[in-house]
Amino acid sequence: MKIGVVDVGGGLRDIYGWGIFDYCMDAGIHFDLCIGVSAGSANVSAYMAGQKKRNIPFYNEYPFRKEYMGLGNFLKGKGFLDLNYVYSVLSNTDGENPFDYHAMVDNPAELFVVATNAETAEAVYFTKADASLNRYDMMKSSSAIPFVCKPYVTSGIACFDGALSDPVPVEKAFQEGCDKVVLILTKPKDVPREPGHDPTFAALIKRKYPKASEALKNRYLRYNEQVEKAKALEKEGKVLILAPDNLEGMSTLKRDPEAIEKLYKKGYENAKELLPGFLTL
User: Fold this and answer.
1) CA–centroid distance for 192 within its chain
2) Distance between alpha carbon 190 and the CA centroid of its chain, in Å?
3) Do 143 and 83 touch, CB atoms closer than 8 A?
4) Residue 240 forms beta bridges with which residues?
5) What is the rounded CA–CA span in Å between residue 40 and residue 184?
């Protein structure tokens, strides 16, 4: 039985996903394949490294620093969200919160980090082979929100956020041989995604990245379609969807310590309640 986990990301909302992974580490739950999109790539990687509670400050502490996100970064040409600060300055071996690269690599589970080719808008699936000690470019590429961030180059490919091309990569998990998949959403599963700010950001990148612009404009349609497919597979017992019942007022980059804490606890408790039964069926 090959069991996979997919974390779709969602910026600071994905503290919910980290609550799930902290429970998994406390309970000794291991997956055979891990797929992460955007913030989900950081979650699955640290989970594979066995770093309990490691990612919590990336949601409830570091985002309040001007180096992490802010207009100042944007004016300096770094993008509103400084991915180098997140995935290099803080995460390198000499950083404040080092990522255990060797433990991640030694974990026998397969890893896929989803990004989107900025030129073609096609999905790119990075693996452990695309990372090295103190070089976590694939996570930067997977998290590069269009306009908020510039495309980030990994293995020679300039990429935007993976959510443009494969926002809910459950099908990818089954293509890689999984029998069951745990899907982590950071929105209530029965609430369709709306376009939100996507059309505005799509227009701002259209001239330079027309295909990525179109993919961003239609992201909500792709997300909703993939969630519906996952819900159908859940009825067959092949997928377990873990999703918050509400967002406590959170959005992708909203900095709200109280809401972040509530979402973390929701993730932990939802996993504790639902995961053991699904994994033993």
Assistant:
1) 19
2) 20
3) yes
4) 182
5) 9
Question: 44-84, pLDDT tens digit by residue?
Answer: 999 999 999 999 999 999 999 999 988 887 777 777 889 99
Residue 40: which of 131, 111, 120 has the closest Cα? 111
Q: How confident is the model at residue 222 (pLDDT cuts 50, 70, 90)?
A: very high
- Rounded CA-CA distance 270/275 in Å is 8
- From residue 169, how far is each of 59, 184, 186, 209, 257 by CA, in Å? 23, 11, 14, 23, 29
Cα(63)–Cα(83) distance, integer angstroms: 11
Q: Which amino acid is at 256?
A: D
**Residue 124 forms beta bridges with which residues?**
115
Mean pLDDT score of the chain: 96
**Buried b / exposed e along 216-227 (16+ C-beta atoms within 10 A):** bbbbbebbbebb
Q: Which one, of 227, 229, 235, lies nearest residue 190 by Cα?
A: 227
Nearest-10 crossing angle of helices 210-217, 198-205? 170
Other CB atoms within 10 Å distance of the CB of residue 81: 21
Residue 236: φ, ψ to 5°: -85, -5
Q: Burial code of 252-277, b = ≥16 C-beta within 10 A, e = fewer?
A: beeeeeebbbbbbebbbebbeeebee
| Relative orientation angle of helices 219-235 and 210-217, to the nearest 10 degrees | 50
SS (H, E, C) 95-160: CCCCCCHHHHHHCCCEEEEEEEECCCCCEEEECHHHCECCECHHHHHHCCCECCECCEEECCEEEE
Helix H segments across the chain?
Answer: 15-27, 39-48, 57-60, 71-75, 83-84, 101-106, 137-142, 170-175, 198-205, 210-217, 219-235, 257-280
Rg over CA atoms, the chain: 17
User: For residue 28, what pLDDT is reported?
Assistant: 97
